[in-house]
Amino acid sequence: MDWAREHYGKDYAPNTRETVRRQTMHQFVDAGLALYNPDNSSRPVNSPKAVYQIEPSTLALLRTYGSRRWRTTLTAYLAQRQTLSERYARERDMSLIPVRLASGMRMRLSAGKHSELIRSIIEAFAPRFVPGSQLVYAGDTGDKWGYFDEALLAKQGVKIDAHGKMPDVVLYCPERKWLLLVEAVTSHGPVDGKRHDELARLFAKSKAGLVYVTAFPDRSLMARHVPEIAWETEVWVADAPSHLIHFNGTRFLGPYVQAFYE
Fold this sequence. Notes:
Strand content: 15-25%
Order of helices and strands: HHEEHHEEHEEHEEHEHEE
Helix content: 25-40%
CATH topology of the largest domain: Trna Endonuclease, Chain: A, domain 1
CATH architecture of the largest domain: 3-Layer(aba) Sandwich
Strand order of the largest sheet: 6-5-7-8-9-10-11
Structural class: alpha+beta
Oligomer: single chain
Radius of gyration: 23 Å
Distance between the termini: 66 Å
Number of helices: 8
Shape: elongated
Number of strands: 11
């Protein structure tokens, strides 16, 4: 950062890895000048262990700068540049996580555990507990607005500006007129009291009823966050997809009748 400030007049604040990634390295990768995680293409986008490596043919070109070979090498490099860019784009696409929506449409999320959990919410949670629901929003670590049906949300009276801190997944259940606000927890916390209030304010104008859900990949991670989970919210765990935990005292108090199926 000091070097960029001195030589390019670009001033980065300390602890701004995300800014460097989005405003500098992202463009280098798209241009094929740098490779992203060449040692492990499945590493999550927001991993602190991210690796950037100068693309080998680009390095070879730059090493000829100032020599008699520069013009010849540059011409040869530019002639194959589009082919290389397409190849690296395909390699990046191969590491994306495919998600099938209820409508039959497919979307792809950046690699990582967080995206795996979002896929489980859409493909396993939604069909079980809100069949017929429509996906309104699904965030992505590589693109905040990974999927967003802004028109559908607007019909429920909610408009979100670019600075709104959306939940990871938003589902709309037309039969019950519910909006389900789902937080996927792999590193950050669950729907606690603070987050519950933030979401309540963000969706305050909703015509649909709000249902707050925290999703975990497994029960061991859930156990670490139990003291934080807000009352009047739901918890779903991907490794036990047929069960839902309701955090309340008396609403569902009563005997449980075991159902038997042939």
